[in-house]
Amino acid sequence: KLFFTDYGNAAKVERCDMDGMNRTWIVDSKIEQPTALALDLINKYVYWVDIYLDSLEVVDYQGRKRHMIIKGRQIRHLCGLAVFENYLYTVNSDNLSILRINRYNGTDVQALARLDNAKEIRVYQKRTQTAVRSHACEVDPHGMPGGCSHICLLSSSYKARTCRCRTGFILGSDGRSCK
Questions:
Q1: pLDDT tens across 95-132, in order?
Q2: Domain ranges within the chain, ordered by starting residue
Q3: pTM over 0.70, yes/no
Q4: Domain topology for 2-125
Q5: Which helix (H) or strand (E) holds 102?
Q6: Residue 23: C-alpha distances to residues 18, 19, 164 (Å)
């Protein structure tokens, strides 16, 4: 799945398959300008920062169990968000500090360090690096991913795929070759 925020005409947090299909709104109310987004891949939660509402919230992958982690002025300048164990890590773009926020109670907020020009933060954890199983976009004997001449995108499961073409090309009637 692909998770993303949008604050165009109607602000929302959404998810879809990697090929863009099955687009689903997870959050579409009481939300104004969602920016930073992070996933708890183990427990299947989505965290986001709304810089207009000065809030940091969480919801499960289906849009249920929504609740506020923290709200107020200390959220105003946050960009970038990552989850690791009991904490959320984020960057305060106003003073370029890395913050650690307890994701269960929101009261334990600590500035850890300052980094010049930091705008994003990532945490890499071995438990979230799942073993790769065979999937529909594996390279075929002709060197084409999933049998696609240009781009292979996983669909609703690791067994399904959709072929796409680079800019300036159109997908042929076979659903795999680009012209």
A1: 778 888 999 987 788 878 877 777 778 888 777 666 76
A2: 2-125, 132-178
A3: yes
A4: Neuraminidase (2.120.10)
A5: strand 97-102
A6: 10, 10, 17
